[in-house]
Amino acid sequence: MGRHVVARVGEIPSGGCRLVHAGGRDIVVFEMQGDYYALLNRCPHEGGGLCHGDRVGMVEADMPGEYRFSRAGEMVKCPWHGWEFDIRTGQSWSDPRRTFVKKYPVSIEAGTELVKGPYVAESFPVTVEDDYVILEV
User: What is the CATH number of the domain that holds 44?
Assistant: First the structure.
């Protein structure tokens, strides 16, 4: 798998996402509280684009009538049929053992490290002496 620069930090809005095409695949990159996560942009049910899905949280209940809302914005809901997936892991909320969306590793790297290549221009020291530019070779 190759490495692909997909955005600068800050280009994906807080709580937002960006659809990118990398390695022959459509991948959606999510920003969540300063961290970034990437999932294949295809729901395993019927192929809905997760980049168009709503970001939702979890509703949990220990008993009827008592509900808790947690993990706000950490789940993405397929826009076609409502299947929900954990943005951090790609796992399905309804069937976490068998249903998931492929996730991809994401890292943040300094731009100065990315622009360094295997090619380095040869440089020579230059000084100025009595109004003459002197090149040392």
Answer: 2.102.10.10
